[in-house]
Amino acid sequence: MKKYNIIRPIMLIVVALLTKSLVTNLCMLLGMESESAKTMGFGAMVIAALVVFSRNRRSPK
Q1: Residue 20: helix, strand or coil by DSSP?
Q2: Distance of alpha carbon 38 from alpha carbon 52, whole angstroms
Q3: Keywords assigned by UniProt (predicted)?
Q4: For labelling alongside 5, which of 42, 54, 55, 57 has CA 20 to 30 A away?
């Protein structure tokens, strides 16, 4: 059985939530409506999670 790394899922969650928060706050700061800003934040969160997940899935050289 491979050794399980607990840091990877925690890092994935942290990066996704931070990205959502930052994008939502930035959009609201620039004058976007609350619901639109939340939608943009959610989209950015999904993209960030996919990027982190794909980078974690690569096997180390």
Answers
A1: helix
A2: 21
A3: Membrane, Transmembrane, Transmembrane helix
A4: 42
Tell how many helices (H) and how many strands (E) occur in the chain.
2, 0
pLDDT tens digits along 27-58: 999 999 999 999 999 999 999 999 999 988 87
How far apart, in whole angstroms, are the C-alpha atoms of residue 25 and residue 6?
Answer: 29
Residue 25: phi, psi to the nearest 5? -65, -40
Which of 3, 1, 43, 36 lies closest to 19 in space, CA to CA? 43
- Quote the pTM value: 0.81
